Prior knowledge:
Blueprint: E1 4-9, H1 17-31, E2 35-40, H2 55-58, H3 67-76, E3 79-87, E4 90-91, H4 93-101, E5 114-120, H5 130-140, E6 147-154, H6 167-178
Parallel strand pairs: 1-2, 1-3, 3-5, 5-6
Antiparallel strand pairs: 3-4
Helix pairs in contact: 1-6
Amino acid sequence: MTKNILIISSTLRKYGNSEILAEEFAKGVKDAGHNVEFISLRDKEIKFCHGCLACQKTQSCVIKDDSNAIVEKMMNADVIVFSTPIYYYAMSGQLKTLLDRANPLFASEYKFRDIYFLAAAADTDFHAMDIAINCLQGWIMCFDRAELKGVVKATGVNKPNDIITHQEVLKQAYRSGKNV
């Protein structure tokens, strides 16, 4: 069965390490014969959630910006992959803001079941991403039919393209995509 995979990259850095991870994941998805759509938040306008909860009744956000189209794509994806650099042991603000703005999904008939998380950190500690993973887990817990299926952690990558020297983690991202 062909799946529709949505990859959301939240780095603002062109050729950022987390985005390169996401690209490797996408290659695996394509090689497995699935459909993949890649969205970068780099040039998107995504405003902060107002907390009005109107979306709980309308399944649409009252704020008119790029998040509405992204949230609709999230709702219709079979698999969602979030890719982020790690800042101060947390996911990027861009990704967290998008997750907040995805509130219309809560009361919707979303299709996604599997969530993957790809993260890149300057810190060399393998646990440097645990806080970000816990934050994503909190979001996933709001969706009874969804679960975190996989995590790829790249540590010790700071400058653009540092990840190129971390071939094993790139292979892990590819394999994760291929095994979706």
